[in-house]
Each structure stands twice: as C-alpha cells, then as structure tokens.
Amino acid sequence: MSLSDLDHTNKRVLMFGGKGGVGKTTCSATTALHYASLGRKTLIISSDLTPSLSDIFEMEVGPTEKPVKGIENLYALEISPDEVMKRWKEKFGPEIYEAASTLIDMEYDEVIDYVAIAPGIQEEFMLDYILERVKDGRYDLIVWDTAPAGDTLRLLDLPYKFIEHLRMAPRFYFEVRDAFKLKKAPFLDLIESWKALAKEVTDFMRDPANTQFILVTIPEALGVYQAKRLVGEFERYGLSIRHLIINNVIQDPDCEFHKARSAMQIPYINMLADEYGDGQMKIIQ
Ligand SMILES: Nc1ncnc2c1ncn2[C@@H]1O[C@H](COP(=O)(O)OP(=O)(O)O)[C@@H](O)[C@H]1O
Ligand SMILES: [Mg+2]
Fold first, then answer.
1. In this predicted model, what pLDDT tens digit does every residue of 75-112 receive, in sequence order?
2. What is the rounded (10 degree) CA torsion for 31, 50, 241, 5?
C-alpha cells in the first residue's frame, strides 16, 4: 500500500470508514504514523466500538489524548460511546436542565436521560468534539478511525432528527408549545443554538477543504458490494470519497496458496477499478 497519494493533503480531518474487520484501524494508524513522521502534529482518534489502537501502539490509549510512546508528533485517543455520553452530559447537562426546568417539573436525571437517548446524539457529540480539537489548533491533522460506516454517515441527517425528537416528545411538546404562546421559551432558544451548532459541524464535514473521507475495503465479493453501497450512501449525502483503499491485496505472490488467493482477488480489484478508478477517486492498494 502506498500513502504517497495522500501526501499533498492539507485537510485537517481524515475520516476512515468501512465495515468492521476490513482494516480501518490499521490503515488509520498507518496514515497517522506517516503524517507524524513528516512532522505534522497528528491526533488519531478511534471511535470504533472495538478499538484496537492500544494493541497497535502497544500502550494503554484510553479516552484522553496521550502522546504515543516513542513516536514524535503523534497523539492518540480511543473513545467509547459511553464516554462520549458522559462528556456530553457534563457539557450540556446543566444548560439543558436549566432550560427545560423553566417549562416543566422534572428531575435532573429524567430530563438529561430523555435528551441523551435522542437518535444521533453520540455522533453529534463526537463531531462536535472533533471540531473542538480542530478549532483549538493544537493539531495539524486529525485522523479519525470511525465506527463501522453508515452509522457515522447517518449523522449528517441526525441533527435534524435529534431536534425532531426534542420537539415531538409529547411531554415536552405541549409544554413547549404552551410556553411559546405565553412567554419566551429558553428551551426553544436552546434548540435553536443546537441547530446552529449542528449546522456548523455538518458544514465542516461537507467542505472538502477540511475533511476527506477514505473508504477502506477488501478485494472480495462482499467488499465490492459494501464499497458500492457506501459510495452510494455518501453521494446521497452530497459527499464524495476521494480515496479508496483496497486492503489485504496479495502483492507478489510467491507460494501456491498466495498465488491462488491472488487469482481470486484480481477480478474484484478489477471490478473496483472499473467502477471507481476513472472518476475522482484514487485507488490505493
Ligand atoms: N494489510 C494488512 N496486512 C495484514 N494484516 C492486516 C492488514 N490490515 C489489517 N490487518 C489485520 O486484520 C485485523 C483487522 O484489522 P483492523 O484494522 O482492526 O480492522 P477494522 O478496524 O476495520 O475492524 C487486525 O488483526 C489487523 O492486524
Ligand atoms: Mg477497528
């Protein structure tokens, strides 16, 4: 695999997507290492449910940024959905409760837990978190090893679904509606400010000058099928994938087993090349 095609990138976030097991984390780590070695201060974040950065870097990575031992310019972080939720509650909890409690009489935990089960809230917060890291300017590059694809993508729709969740919840809805008629409703102001935040985050992701998506797949029937589905999904969200990594390709087969496997891979590599090779996408093997 050659990373030279990515060398010219000035993007601030590189997102690696693909199904579990195709080599997303491995490719993310390799890429992060590559840029760190070129002198770019790089943070690798894994939000994969089965994070393996700790194994790759042979250290306990965990949910706070840590320098990777023995590698200059490289920092790593593994963050689970539970941790994301915990931080989200810390960040927004008091604000939400304050706004909601002007409308209804509910316990703190009840309010926060209701909001916290909103669809897409974890992804929303993850993006917000990444955008914060970008804005604070401490890193030249953030490499994001995403949760198996599809999930991460859907979040582009989710800020709106999330807002709907808040608006449509009967218990809130009637109160909010009544309050809206009667007095200024801080809860609606809060929803408006979140909408703005969600828009800022999704605009950042949609701007190819900031964010680049790299799809990882494997040269098998399932890999070809999944790549096709994911590329289609990206297009529906107005995003384009500029790089496709075909991982696990057998290079220079030197034994019967590898020769046979290589022969099996070739038709799928060709299919991927035919489908994506002549467009905007660079294929890296
Ligand atoms: N190009 C490769 N060559 C050899 N082993 C690989 C390669 N890519 C991935 N692996 C191995 O395959 C397994 C799954 O890779 P991983 O990066 O964890 O996948 P994902 O993050 O997509 O679930 C790991 O054990 C990893 O070491
Ligand atoms: Mg992984």
1. 999 987 778 778 878 877 887 777 777 666 778 887 77
2. 10
Whether the CB of 25 sits within 6 Å of ligand 1: yes
Number of domains the chain is built from: 1
Q: Domain span at residue 42? A: 4-284
Alpha helices in the chain (DSSP H): 24-37, 53-57, 81-101, 108-116, 121-135, 151-154, 158-168, 170-182, 186-206, 221-236, 256-276
Q: Which residues have CB atoms below 5 A from the ion given as ligand 2?
A: 24-25, 48
Ligand 1 pocket test target in 2, 22, 26 with most atoms within 8 Å of CB: 26
CATH of the domain at 16: 3.40.50.300
Q: For the segment 201-222, what is each residue's pLDDT rounded down to a tens digit?
A: 778 878 888 888 899 999 999 9
Ligand minimally distant from the alpha carbon of residue 149: 1
